[in-house]
Specification:
This protein has helices at 2-30, 41-95, 100-111, 117-125, 135-147, 151-174, 179-197, 218-231, 245-248, 256-267, 284-300, 313-320, 326-329, 341-354, 361-372, 383-401, 413-416, and strands at 207-212, 240-243, 271-274, 306-311, 332-336, 358-359, 418-419. 62% of the residues lie in helices and 7% in strands.
Length: 432
């Protein structure tokens, strides 16, 4: 039996020696040692030293990686413990009756070791200065202080809105003429108030059409209407955003709809006023796209803004007929009638006071005769005619008095600030 094993052992030893020789040759080749010199003692020693060095470097890298994993695991545990401790401090302070903003500040102060939860609560309850918060906590506290709503703040906001509503209504009723306009605004408010008292989910649509000639006060009333709706609580702030065709209709495909959407977004909480809205029909397919997008946006933001379309009566009627959804979304049509001669005279008095001047009685008579004469084309029944008449009278007065300023009897303050019949243009001669 032993004799049978001897050849196998010898063969295994030979095979192992052969394998070792091959491995040694491969290592020598990797290290750049020529095969002929690999068997020399000095070369074998160098190969051995380099092999051991590479093995140590590999083991060191593995050790560093393992150490990094351990550090990361321990650090994560520390962070979790810190967050849990700070939250526990926050809960403790909340149980002591501390408000959220102060609890955040004090919990952070406790977590960094400035003070204990008991000391922080005692300081706050005793009215002593609180621990100095870090900038982030201070910003949170300031935001909460601004946005926190109390019964007192709600009552004060309600009083301010009521005052704003009274002031806006007084300004509306102080406007010259416009009896029908004032009546329809009161009617809309009555409908909205009854709907709210009835518990209706929505108030009447805040889509309005202002029809009438230019200069009859449409923009002025739109601005006041926004304040009225805000004061009544139907709009957030009632600001007025004015737009025209050029603001809404693009020149290329893809421009129009974003413009309309942007105009609506700017108007949320207030009024979107589109003057000469009928001109959108003149924009071709882009104008029609603007109308369609406007109808959709009004529906999407129902109750969030008021939209007022303004223009000539006949043109606005044609405009409302251009889209099936316009009439239902703009049900309140308010017509602005032309001013009567006596109403124009009242507006003239206001315009003269704006110039810090007065009208002589005979000047008022002359102005009334002037306004009773048919107006120039394009100026029928509007305030522009009144402004033009007063500005022309001021120019004529200046031409009349300027030569007297260097004379022996220059005009006094009263004469300088008074318009006379001589300064008012006659209807036949126009505005001088």
């Amino acid at each position: 039996m032993w004799l049978d094993l001897e050849p196998k052992v010898r063969r295994a030893i030979v095979d192992n020696s052969h394998f070792s020789a091959q491995a040694w040759a491969s290592l020598a080749w990797l290290l750049g040692v020529p095969p002929a010199q690999a068997g020399r003692p000095l070369a074998r020693l160098a190969i051995t030293v380099v092999s051991v060095f590479l093995m140590l470097v590999t083991l060191s890298g593995l050790f560093v990686f393992a150490a990094w994993i351990v550090v990361a695991y321990v650090g994560a545990g520390v962070i979790v413990q810190k967050v849990e401790a700070e939250y526990a401090d926050y809960v403790y302070l909340r149980e002591q009756g501390v408000q959220d903003a102060h609890a955040v500040e004090l919990a952070h102060s406790v977590s960094i070791g400035k003070t204990s939860p008991q000391e922080a609560a005692a300081l706050l309850q005793a009215g002593q200065p609180e621990p100095e918060p870090d900038p982030v906590s201070a910003a949170i506290a300031a935001h909460l202080a601004i946005t926190q709503e109390t019964p007192e703040s709600r009552a004060e906001a309600g009083r301010r809105k009521a005052d704003d509503l009274r002031a806006a209504l007084a300004e509306l009723h102080g406007l010259t003429g416009l009896a029908e306009v004032k009546h329809q605004v009161r009617q809309f408010l009555a409908l909205a108030q009854v709907a709210r008292a009835r518990g209706a989910a929505e108030i009447p649509s805040m889509g309005f059409v202002f029809s009438g000639n230019p200069g009859t006060g449409k923009t002025t009333v739109a601005r006041i209407l926004g304040r009225i709706l805000a004061g009544a609580g139907y709009l957030r702030d009632g600001h007025l955003t004015e737009c025209g065709k050029s603001d809404l209709v693009g020149q290329y495909v893809g421009q129009t709809a974003p413009r309309v959407v942007a105009a609506v977004q700017r108007s949320l909480g207030g009024c979107l006023f589109i003057d000469e809205a009928y001109s959108l029909l003149e924009g071709g397919q882009f104008g029609q796209e603007a109308i369609d997008t406007l109808v959709q946006e009004v529906e999407n933001h129902r109750g969030e803004l008021a939209v007022i379309l303004a223009g000539y009566s006949a043109d606005m009627e044609r405009f409302l007929s251009s889209n099936a959804g316009l009439r239902s979304r703009f049900p309140t049509v308010i017509h602005f009638s032309d001013y009567t001669p006596s109403e124009k005279l009242e507006i003239a008095r206001i315009e003269v006071r704006r110039h810090k001047m007065t009208l002589a009685p005979e000047a008022e008579d002359a102005l009334l005769r002037y306004f009773q004469h048919p107006a120039k084309p394009g100026e029928e029944g509007n305030g522009r005619e009144v402004r033009n008449a007063i500005e022309a009278a001021v120019r004529r007065q200046a031409m009349r008095l300027a030569p007297l300023l260097t004379g022996d009897s220059p005009p006094g303050a009263g004469e300088l600030n008074t318009l006379t019949a001589e300064d008012v243009a006659e209807p036949k001669t126009g505005l001088g």
